[in-house]
Amino acid sequence: MDHAIYWHARLLSGDFDAVEMDDFLAWQQADEKNEIYLHYVEENWSLIEDNKAQIQQSLEKPVFKLKNHIRWAGAVMVVFVIMGAVITLLNPFAEKHITAIGEQKIIYLADGSSVSLNTDSELEVDLKDEERAVSLIKGEAYFRVTPDKTRPFTVDVGQRMIRVVGTEFNIFRDGKKFTLSVTKGVVAILGGKENQVVELQLLAGQQVSMDMEGNFQENDHIDLNRVTAWRDGQLVYDNVPLKDFIQDLNRYYVGKIILQDKELENRRISGVFQIGDRDKAIKAVENLLPLKAMPLTSNNVVLYSEK
């Protein structure tokens, strides 16, 4: 099991050269149980997604022989056990909603508002008499907020707060950055001391991406249908870099697509794909670019150059 954890973590890192691929395939074929262990790790990996930054730091250190990673892999196993307890203790009074990888659901709040929660996301809701407070811990959510001037609706995204009275908007929180897209009404981004200073105000059709230091990039001409297409079971890409396409697609599946040839990361791709039909998306990449797909496991696929 330790070896399965190690290899799955290496696959996720994306830093997987030809020599290491040969080692992986040799391990995979050495014992039929190895494939079973790897599949188990893939199915349960979402339990430690909140620790992926720390894991990535470990993976960026020099790679030694496999046996030297056993202690690290054992530590990951401990995380599998304790993550559930940690999540529960963070805020015992908030109502928690979590989606697994590939899962989506709609949450109806007591004030009449609703939240559509996308794949691999976590949301905390704390509705009080004086305010309606929500925290998007990770992932993506579409908010449809019932107007109530006496109770502002706020969404905590880390070092910033989103505040509205009644409107509709989409937030994607990815690590230390979030992207806010407004589809209806007006939305304010608060920062400063105790998040009381209005830093930005967005109208319908506007979008902003901001990191935790306050650096931001605005877009006044977004395609709202593309931003919210996931709610209708679709993924829409318009001339996006291949690396961004793969990163976004990987959010919806337990296994990962790995691009071996980094020289092709910035090649552009467009298309409309149904969520749940990863094979069609992979086939489109093969047809559009000089790449071929090779299954590594039942869930993981590597894209390699034909040259």
Automatic annotation (TrEMBL):
<dbReference type="InterPro" id="IPR012373">
    <property type="entry name" value="Ferrdict_sens_TM"/>
</dbReference>
<dbReference type="Pfam" id="PF16344">
    <property type="entry name" value="FecR_C"/>
</dbReference>
<dbReference type="Pfam" id="PF16220">
    <property type="entry name" value="DUF4880"/>
</dbReference>
<feature type="transmembrane region" description="Helical">
    <location>
        <begin position="70"/>
        <end position="90"/>
    </location>
</feature>
<dbReference type="InterPro" id="IPR032623">
    <property type="entry name" value="FecR_N"/>
</dbReference>
<protein>
    <submittedName>
        <fullName>Uncharacterized protein</fullName>
    </submittedName>
</protein>
<dbReference type="Pfam" id="PF04773">
    <property type="entry name" value="FecR"/>
</dbReference>
<dbReference type="GO" id="GO:0016989">
    <property type="term" value="F:sigma factor antagonist activity"/>
</dbReference>
<keyword id="KW-0472">Membrane</keyword>
<dbReference type="InterPro" id="IPR032508">
    <property type="entry name" value="FecR_C"/>
</dbReference>
<keyword id="KW-0812">Transmembrane</keyword>
<feature type="domain" description="FecR N-terminal">
    <location>
        <begin position="3"/>
        <end position="35"/>
    </location>
</feature>
<feature type="domain" description="Protein FecR C-terminal">
    <location>
        <begin position="235"/>
        <end position="291"/>
    </location>
</feature>
<keyword id="KW-1133">Transmembrane helix</keyword>
<dbReference type="InterPro" id="IPR006860">
    <property type="entry name" value="FecR"/>
</dbReference>
<feature type="domain" description="FecR protein">
    <location>
        <begin position="98"/>
        <end position="187"/>
    </location>
</feature>
